[in-house]
Amino acid sequence: MKAEESGSVTRRHFLETTTAATLGVLAANHPAPAAGEPAAGMKYRRLGRTNLKISEIGLGCASGLRSQQLGPEQFNKYREALPMIAQRLLDHGGNFVATSASYHDTEEILGRALKGRRKDVFIFTASGKKDAKAVIADCERSLTRFQTDVIDGYFGHGGWSDGFGEAAQTLKQQGKIRFIGMSCHIPEKHRERVEAGLVDFIFQPYNYMNLAKWTEKTDRVGTEELFELCKKKDVGVMVIKPMTGHFIPNWAKQTDDPKVAGLLTELKTVGKQNLYQAFLLWVLKNPNVCCAIVGMGATQDVTENCAALTQKFGALHERLLEQYAALATGDYCRMCETCVPTCPAGVRIPDILRYRMYHQNYGHRRDARELYAALPAHQQAPACTECGQCEQVCPARLAIVRKLKAAHELLA
Ligand code: SF4
Ligand code: SF4
Question: pLDDT digit string (tens) for 221-247?
Answer without folding.
Answer: 678 899 999 999 999 999 998 887 555
